[in-house]
Specification:
alpha+beta; eight-stranded parallel β-barrel
Length: about 800
């Protein structure tokens, strides 16, 4: 059994199955009973978790809180020759479990499908399947899909929901599943990108997250706008090869529980923020992409050089920028990834001091750049899986190129080296590396961190390719993710951003668990900026979503205050040539950046979508909220609405509290409101269309925690100076002020010995306690008002008295 104060999951040992999956809150619900834990389709045979026995169990305390249970599994019958590790993690106060399976085979096998986690939720639920898709370069509401497609067109917006009928089977490409019933839900999310093989299913009784490799055909990367191919049939297609003795890790999942409005968003956020996302600095960045008039370049490269850095850096500092990112012009040749400097000049430079291809930077370690931008941190754009055919690395190691596709890409690159006719990207380089180049790629990134002071990378143009005799698309993807994890482990102060504006790459959860995603190119207007946050949050955490702030001439047609307010919940990034912005625009934006930097933690929370879709151009609102601390922010936008006043109700507000409202960006006191007023709705008035109002919401007095313990003794377990039991141990429960106890759990040495429900529980009796030894008793008490208390105490069980029979006549005589 693994659990905490709010949830519990139990397993059988001889044939591994989940015997119970329980949400203990508000009267409790048993979501699953006697369900398979996972499934494998290996060599044409379906192998269930029940074909494995639990050989041993290990416990590990996690650095950020929580416990990991590792079950070592031994297969038999159809699973003979297979071993596995099944890990489960639970965290304090989080209603859910992270699960993962790692399989090892003694012989070569082919894995075509797998169920990552299952829950026997029964027939009385409504299933909702959600898929999350990158590609905002072309994807928008109503997008019909690519003109050429096989299997499924993948039309529509960046989030697609498929709601099934209650109790009816449904299956689709998705990374998320909700099972809803009677104001509660069980939800499941997989840490995987949106390849067609990512599946969610409900068969009328069991909910599951699955991987079906047979659905995948090819990853076309940025060409997905024009064509999409996946296998429409149930057979054939791709598979994964299990090599003898090599562990194969399936993607992790999170199975969580929600009770009432807003709890799903909060449980998911608590899991991510406190336990899963590797913490990174939510920096305010500037990127040099739009500094490009082809004065120093001919194609995709920007025009940045040391003179431009020295001109733009003072404006960026004044704006409040924290990270100064050089985009695709900094490297003399992609593949070598050395600064364009006298030590590593551009191959097109003729040696003339007036050539547009003369060295951009005076040194090969960006020392001059770092001096010019201080105290801002240096960031670098990089296309790690591509190379320029002129690079020294490619010329020395042509065997590292992905074959056979790089033959054609290199030929196209050489035919148009300046990027004038075929593709502007040719100037940087479009040759594709195989996995054989990864040691070199990682060494270049580490060199930039260790010797150039780079603290931010924006990775672009990743396409997962099949390279003959080198790797398939899966192993190329897996190797890239493993490299990111090594870099994050060794350099936690370095931010790793993934550009996902035009293909699969790592979206939604593989990228955003490791850093921000660059999600929106172009010049989005306010409704588009808000729409992406409204639609994706809270499933994809808003603070990870990078969008173009003050893009193009948007500041001419929109209130700068509104543009900046729309940027607050996301990963704030300026892409504009700051030299082109008037001083009043810089000053206005700087006030908002300063406000964000002072209250960054209020814009790094769960995002609740309020009101309707912002694309309707009516009133729009977002709520940033911490349900435990009862604090956050309200962002309201009038847009083109005719009414100047809108009542906006907040979600997840605990009753009985008072709150201070603080106006942004001025910090002015905007009054005090009660929980009832926030829940009913507060009136927001904006005199003109296109205006915005941002309010920080802080509790006047810190609310008592919903969950207390296991330290202390809030349930008031009695202190006993003598031994207890073993037949019975009865004690009174402490009643929370103004409420009554409606549910109690008791655990002895981690084993549940009692679960009782009632209208007003006053006393509890425990039976058959350990005799003659010390034991740990844990009591979890749930009140009618939602309050919870945990007490843990050590007791000594009384020794059993030896039974003596009364003397008989035979003894007397």
């Amino acid at each position: 059994m693994l659990g905490n104060a709010v949830v519990e999951r139990d397993w059988s040992r001889s044939a591994l199955r989940t015997t119970a999956l329980i949400d203990k809150r508000r009267g409790g619900r048993r979501w699953s009973t006697d369900s398979r834990d996972f499934l494998l389709d290996v060599g044409g045979a379906t192998i269930g978790s029940e074909d494995f026995r639990v050989a041993s169990v290990g416990l590990e305390r996690l650095d950020r809180g929580g416990i990991r249970v590792t079950m070592r599994l031994a297969g038999s019958g159809p699973a003979a020759g297979l071993t596995a590790l099944r890990t489960a993690e639970a965290y304090p106060g989080v209603a859910g479990f992270r699960m993962q399976t790692i399989v090892t085979s003694a012989t070569p096998l082919v894995l075509s499908k797998a169920a990552l986690d299952l829950a026997g939720v029964g027939g009385a639920i409504t299933p909702v399947l959600r898929s999350f898709r990158a590609g905002t370069d072309w994807r928008e509401p109503g997008w019909p899909g690519p003109p050429l497609w096989v299997g499924y067109r993948q039309a529509g917006d960046v989030r697609q929901d498929l709601t099934g009928s209650p109790g009816k089977p449904v299956e689709a490409n998705a990374e998320w599943l909700d099972a809803r019933a009677s104001g509660r839900s069980l939800f499941m999310a997989m840490e995987r990108n949106d390849l067609p093989s990512s599946r969610a299913a409900y068969d009328g009784a069991t909910a599951s997250l699955r991987v079906d490799y047979t659905k995948d055909v090819i990853d076309l990367g940025p060409l997905e706008e024009e064509a999409h191919f996946e296998n429409p049939s149930s057979g054939g297609g791709r598979a994964r090869a299990l090599q003898p003795g090599q562990p194969f890790a399936l993607e992790p999942t999170f199975t969580g529980f929600a009770v009432g409005d807003g709890d799903l968003e909060w449980q998911w956020h608590k899991y991510l923020a406190a336990h899963r996302v590797v913490p990174y600095h939510h920096t305010v960045a500037w990127n040099s992409d739009k500094v490009d008039q082809n004065q120093r370049s001919t194609g995709s490269k920007d025009d940045m050089d040391i003179q431009a850095v020295e001109q733009i850096a003072p404006i960026a500092r004044r704006l409040g920028v924290e990270t100064f990112v050089l985009d695709d012009g900094w490297a003399s040749r992609d593949g070598d990834w050395q600064p364009d400097s006298p030590q590593y000049p551009e191959p097109r430079w003729d040696g003339s001091p007036t050539s547009k291809f003369r060295p951009r930077y005076p040194d090969a370690t960006f020392a001059a750049v770092r001096r010019a931008i201080a105290p801002m941190r240096l960031g670098l754009w990089m296309s790690p899986l591509e190379f320029n055919p002129s690079s020294a690395t490619y010329r020395a190691h042509p065997q590292w190129a992905c074959q056979p596709i790089s033959n054609g890409l290199v030929a196209a690159n050489l035919a148009d080296p300046d990027g004038n006719t075929v593709s502007s990207s040719n100037e940087a380089g479009i040759g594709a590396w195989s996995n054989w180049a990864y040691p070199h790629i990682e060494s270049r990134i580490r060199d930039a961190i260790d010797h150039w002071g780079a603290r931010y990378f924006k990775f672009d143009f990743m396409v997962w390719l099949d390279c003959a005799g080198q790797n398939d698309l899966y192993s190329q993807h897996d190797a890239f993710v493993a490299m990111l994890d090594r870099l994050r482990r060794d350099h936690p102060d370095v931010v790793l951003q993934t550009d996902e504006t035009n293909d699969y790459r790592l979206f939604p959860f593989e990228s955003t668990l490791r850093g921000p995603t660059w999600f929106q190119n172009g010049y989005p207007d306010v409704p588009s900026l808000l729409h992406n946050l409204w639609l994706l949050g809270p499933y994809v955490q808003s603070y990870s979503i990078g969008q173009h702030v003050l893009g193009g001439d948007s500041w001419k047609t929109n209130d700068v205050n509104t543009l900046m307010a729309a940027a607050l919940p996301g990963a704030i990034t300026f892409w504009t040539d700051l030299r082109r912005l008037p001083a009043p625009v810089i000053d206005t934006a700087a006030r908002w950046v300063a406000f964000y930097r002072s209250h960054r933690d209020s814009f790094s929370l769960a995002t609740y979508a309020l009101l309707g879709d912002p694309l309707g151009r009516d009133w729009a609102a977002l709520q940033e909220w911490d349900r435990d601390a009862q604090r956050g922010a309200l962002l309201a936008f009038r847009q083109d609405a005719g009414a100047s006043t809108k009542r906006i109700a907040l979600r997840g507000v605990r009753p009985g509290l008072r709150f201070h409202l603080i106006e942004g960006p001025s910090g002015r006191d905007a009054g005090t409101v009660t929980s009832a007023e926030l829940t009913r709705g507060i009136d927001v008035t904006l005199s003109s269309k296109g205006q915005t109002r941002v309010l920080l919401i802080e509790p006047a007095k810190a609310p008592p925690p919903v969950l207390r313990g296991p330290t202390g003794n809030p349930a008031l377990l009695p202190k006993i100076g003598h031994c207890v039991g073993p037949r019975s141990f009865t004690f009174a429960l402490h009643r929370p002020r103004g409420s009554r106890v409606v549910q109690v759990y008791a655990y002895v040495d981690g084993r549940r010995v009692l679960h009782r429900r009632g209208r007003d529980i006053r006393r509890v009796a425990l039976h058959h306690l350990p005799a003659g030894r010390r034991f740990t008793l844990r009591i979890e008490v749930f009140a009618a008002n939602g309050a919870e208390a945990i007490s843990v105490r050590r007791y000594t069980g009384c020794k059993k008295k030896r039974h003596r029979r009364p003397p008989s006549d035979r003894d007397i005589g």
